[in-house]
Design a protein that fits this description.
The chain is of the alpha/beta class. The chain has helices spanning about 15-30, 35-40, 50-60, 65-85, 95-105, 120-125, 150-160, 175-180, 210-215, and strands spanning about 5, 110-115, 135, 165-170, 185-190, 200.
Amino acid sequence: MMRGFVFDLDGVLADTAKYHYMAWRQLSAELGITIDEQFNEQLKGISREESLERILIHGSKSEIFSDAEKAELAEKKNRHYVELLAELTPEEVLPGVGSFLMNAHRHEIPCAVASASKNAPFILTKLAINDYFVGVVDPATLTKGKPDPEIFIKAAQLMALQPAEVIGFEDAQAGIDGIKGCGMYAIGIGDTQQLKGADRWAADLSELSVEELIQL
């Protein structure tokens, strides 16, 4: 039986990805780089620093900034992102999330968050769902980002479980790869046609049953 659930945040619990895109698009414009929603798909599930690097490479400007300057650019993007998040409300939780988390709590199934976002605790509080999670993996403790499975292994450890006892929920290919890389059962959320290697797919959590999943 499955004994725990691990969730990515952006695109699985809430649609905060649009705020990332808005913040990256503004920073890119200031640097003379144009990105669109299609390019933004490459940034899902990866760290802030790697996202910036991909944007700079896209604009052929990776070599003109020092590491210190890149760190400041990434922080500038984050400040704008956090400003946008000030408007976030519990109504922006994605369909099925509230009832799914309540059912998991009722069945005493622990839940954890494995997100590349360093703002995850703040976002969960704004969404009023933070109490449903036993922990959030701190990206600052990781040596590698997704698709490396490290973040999912740490999430399982937060719940005192083995990866094989856990189901992971992701909307990005890097996340699916990381989940499968440590032996978890992977459920792809969202535009499932783009997610390869998942064990199961769903448009959102409203299509999934806690009772069924824990029997897997």
